[in-house]
Amino acid sequence: VKNSGVPDPRKIENYIDFKEKYKEFIQLEPEMSIYLGKVYKEMGGEMQKSL
């Protein structure tokens, strides 16, 4: 892993691998967006489809 200059809080002796974090985010994002939308609606929020 290239030294990003940012320590990894999970493994302090390593640096954050931003390419790997991006891949992890892309995999998790669809489910998280659905979940957060559901929570928002349960709290009384209204959602619209974007153009």
Automatic annotation (TrEMBL):
<protein>
    <submittedName>
        <fullName>Uncharacterized protein</fullName>
    </submittedName>
</protein>
